[in-house]
Amino acid sequence: MISKHSLTELFKTHHLPVYRVKQVFHAIYKEGESDYSKMSVLPAAAKILLTEHAPVFCFSVVREVVSSNTDTVKTLFKLKDGKLIEGVLMRFRDGRRSVCVSSQVGCGLKCSFCATGTMGFFRNLTDEEIADQVLYFDQWLKKFHHERVDHVIFMGMGEPMLNYESVMSAIRTLNDPDALGIAARHITVSTSGVIPGIVKLSDEELQINLAVSLHSPDQALRESIMPIAKPYTIPKLMEALHDYVEKTHRRISYEYVMLKNINDSPQTARQLGKLIRGQRCHVNLIPYNETYLGFSNSGKSRIDEFREIVESYGVPVTVRVSLGQDISAACGQLAVEEKRK
Ligand code: SAH
Ligand code: SF4
Predict the structure, then answer these.
(1) Closest listed residue to residue 20, CA positions, set 46, 2, 51
(2) What is the per-residue pLDDT across 26-39, written as a single tens digit (0 to 9) for each?
(3) Which one of 331, 333, 334 would you pick to mutate in the ligand 1 pocket, going by the greatest count of ligand atoms within 8 A of its CB?
């Protein structure tokens, strides 16, 4: 949906009263309506204008898969230029309704275990294309479960810190009480460690969360699975994160995908513990969602052992709950499958 500002301008140009903007926003964001012709408060002229110039969604749905117990919905969206992106809705047992959004079409950073990385980079998403993914699932939830989205994570396709302005603009829309009204502290941006983005984020007023995909405490190993680690080395990254915490007083969440026999040894766990102990942080161990890329999931006992070792350094550790395994919910999998077909 176009921004409130653009909608106001559109109404002004066509000599429609601007109080109608609030009515349109209310119908879309609060009532979950996506068809202008059904917005009975609007006069016919406004309905026609909106249908022509301000479609509620800037994409169409190509494919949607719902996991057998309906806790995960994964949707493939087709943008106006034909490019495909995906978004995922997760309905957690604790009540959280979380949407994982894409920030780019593909990703240029080529992490060796990531399906999105194999696609390469096509283009940045606009703020509207990002926010609309959340709006889509918010309407889906209202329709099928009488629920609302209350958490957003930037962990879909792409590197959000390389599309900084659009990501921030989308976050302001998500945050807007007249739009989705999602609290900033319920929004998490995940980065593979793009330092300039981390520096910029520390100066933002918005109280959003930062997740950093570390995946290895060892420079050589990290470089071998994440090429971005070459320019943004671990020592430089740690320095930037130290400054971020000093400035924002917020806690960093380290993402650590558990790859069997690659980064999951007890020795690596000790190295990780030593690297980040004493920081205001926690570690989220991610069970690897197996793709066609040749990496394997570490398995529960290996993950538990790793967790205990890291915790012994006084670092809090959680293990991500894996939802939607029956629908290949890992980042980029659906879009890549569609392209391979
Ligand atoms: N580019 C950003 C955000 C998108 S990737 C980043 O890298 O942080 C979001 C997370 O999903 C990253 O931590 C990434 O390492 C992880 N990921 C990628 N492929 C995965 C897979 N097959 N299984 C589990 N996690 C995966
Ligand atoms: Fe890009 Fe993140 Fe995938 Fe790496 S893990 S290729 S940074 S989307």
Answers:
(1) 46
(2) 999 999 999 999 99
(3) 331
